[in-house]
Amino acid sequence: MDMVTINPDMVLGPLLQPTLNTSVEPIAKLVGAETFRTATCRLADVRDVANAHILAFENPLACGRYCVAGKPTHSCEILKILREFYPHLNLPQKCSDDKLSMPAFQVT
């Protein structure tokens, strides 16, 4: 039996449901917050993740695990994008700490 797995990082994109999902909730919590956590994560667009599933399904040579991840994105960059698209939102201006939280990943 052949097995293919698609392993995305934090998945963001258009919502299908009216309620918040796990990936969008931390971003929604920034609204009204006084500070934000200094963090870096890799974002994957939900449409890219869906496309990866389709490509893996359609390719008979596909096997194993495939990672879907974008470039490292700092929380400051996420806030900058939110301010650009939603200037009316009350978003935090300062970090809650000075350390850069850079997660370590072992991908094999």
Automatic annotation (TrEMBL):
The keyword Oxidoreductase applies. The keyword NADP applies. InterPro entries: NAD(P)-bd_dom_sf, NAD(P)_dehydrat-like. Keywords: NADP, Oxidoreductase. GO terms for molecular function: oxidoreductase activity, acting on the CH-OH group of donors, NAD or NADP as acceptor. This is NAD-dependent epimerase/dehydratase domain-containing protein. It comes from Gossypium tomentosum.
